[in-house]
Specification:
Blueprint: E1 2-6, H1 11-23, E2 28-33, E3 53-57, H2 63-73, E4 77-80, H3 87-92, H4 95-115, E5 119-125, H5 152-171, E6 175-180, E7 183-184, H6 193-202, E8 207-210, E9 216-218, E10 220-221, H7 222-235, E11 241-244, E12 249-251, H8 252-263, E13 270-273, H9 288-294, H10 302-315, H11 317-324, H12 328-336
Parallel strand pairs: 1-2, 1-4, 2-3, 4-5, 5-6, 6-11, 7-10, 8-13
Antiparallel strand pairs: 9-12
The structure holds nicotinamide-adenine-dinucleotide and thymidine-5'-diphosphate.
Thymidine-5'-diphosphate binds next to helix 6 and strand 8.
Length: 342
């Protein structure tokens, strides 16, 4: 079996490749990645020489390149992780989000139609449902919750989801979609909340909380997400959407305080800065469907997962220090330099 994994040099895609290498050693894995600012080839160093692994530097919007790869490799399965994934960047520059997240998805699915495929899996997000009010803890996103995206990022992911379902209905493409909550774990780019706070805390730098820090996310350890996708590929029903999340809701300020405590850093590093535009209040997944149909449940408790993650960033400081020593500095200045303290 040959599987194309797009976006495999990014956070979740790389963790998925490692998980697949461990659990399905006979599967030939083809990693397709454009290596944007978020893609890091050094992440894949341990699998690079594996004879059952191939890395291809390619933009998923490059139709000629994608078709050529399908002709060469004749993949059985495509798992599409490739995306522009950061909400703050989507507020600054929406266009590249539409290009990669929508047109890239369309290009991959056109290749699947043309060359045939057993399964096209779209890695989506709970953010397509918009947000829930803090004062209604009884509400959760189910697969039937209407799409109601808030940011250019989530709107682009919702658009892609609609296109995936349309390709199933119109062309009979054998698709599945997973909509997962916030992930954390090794190899996450230090622009996202948890790694950014770990890196800043270790450098005794301010920890910038948007607004009051009351926003709630439903955090899942990345390996649990990988297991969910594997279960959907093996047992999921074609044409279906599966929500993935673990009833692990935490508000931002509490997470940052836990990171301070774990690293023995003072909470007075925390600064409240200007809020994100259109900031979603609460995400919360109802994972009943994937549990009932596929038997999936998250295995890593938040306390253990956070500890493992912090330890990983301590043990692998070169990985993230290389990132934050380069163009990341300009990004940080652009995003945080103009954010007034509140
Ligand atoms: P990431 O930003 O860490 O990685 C994205 C990868 O895609 C990078 O390696 C990048 O180089 C590659 N890429 C970007 N544009 C490309 C293009 N045009 N062609 C080929 N490759 C391209 O993202 P992530 O956090 O690993 O997220 C992966 C997927 O999971 C995304 O689709 C995202 O929407 C989804 N998701 C993420 C989370 C989360 O918490 N991080 C939660 C739910 C769903
Ligand atoms: P993020 O990791 O960007 O994920 P998403 O926006 O996709 O949920 O942010 C998680 C939460 O943390 C979100 O409510 C925004 C907040 N946040 C901060 O308060 N400060 C920061 O510096 C960052 C990056 C995020």
């Amino acid at each position: 079996m040959t599987m194309i994994v797009t976006g495999g040099a990014g956070f979740i895609g790389a963790n998925f490749l490692f998980y697949m290498r461990k659990t399905h050693p006979d599967t030939r894995l083809i990693c397709v990645d454009k290596l944007t600012y978020a893609g890091n080839l050094s992440t894949l160093a341990t699998v690079m020489d594996d004879p059952n692994f191939r890395f291809v530097k390619l933009d998923i919007c490059d139709r000629v390149g994608v078709y050529q790869l399908f002709e060469e490799e004749k993949p059985d399965v495509v798992v599409n992780f490739a995306a522009e994934s950061h909400v703050d960047r989507s507020i600054e520059t929406p266009e590249v989000f539409l290009q990669t997240n929508v047109i890239g998805t369309e290009t991959l699915m056109d290749a699947c139609r043309r060359y045939g495929i057993q399964r096209y899996h779209q890695v989506s997000t709970d953010e397509v449902y918009g947000d829930l009010p803090l004062e209604r803890p009884d509400l959760f996103f189910t697969e039937e919750t209407p799409l109601h995206a808030s940011s250019p990022y989530s709107a682009s992911k919702a658009s892609a989801d609609l296109l995936v379902l349309a390709y199933h209905r119109t062309y009979g493409l054998p698709v599945t979609i997973s909509r997962c909550s916030n992930n954390y774990g090794p190899y996450q780019f230090p622009e996202k909340l948890i790694p950014l706070m770990i890196a800043n805390a270790l450098a005794d730098k301010p920890l910038p909380i948007y607004g009051r820090g009351e926003n709630v996310r439903d955090w899942l350890y990345v390996e649990d997400h990988c297991k969910a996708i594997d279960a959907i590929l093996q047992k999921g029903r074609v044409g279906q959407v599966y929500n993935v999340g673990g009833h692990n809701e935490m508000c931002n300020i509490d997470i940052v305080k836990r990171i301070c405590k774990a690293l023995d850093k003072p909470e007075n590093l925390i600064v409240h800065v200007e809020d994100r535009k259109g900031h979603d209040m609460r995400y919360a997944i109802d994972p009943t469907k994937i549990h009932r149909e596929l038997g999936w449940l998250p295995e890593t408790k938040f306390g253990d997962g956070l500890q493992k993650t912090i330890q990983w960033y301590l043990d692998n400081s070169k990985w993230w220090q290389d990132i934050i020593s380069g163009a990341y500095q300009d990004y940080y200045e652009k995003m945080y330099g103009k954010r007034a303290e509140v």
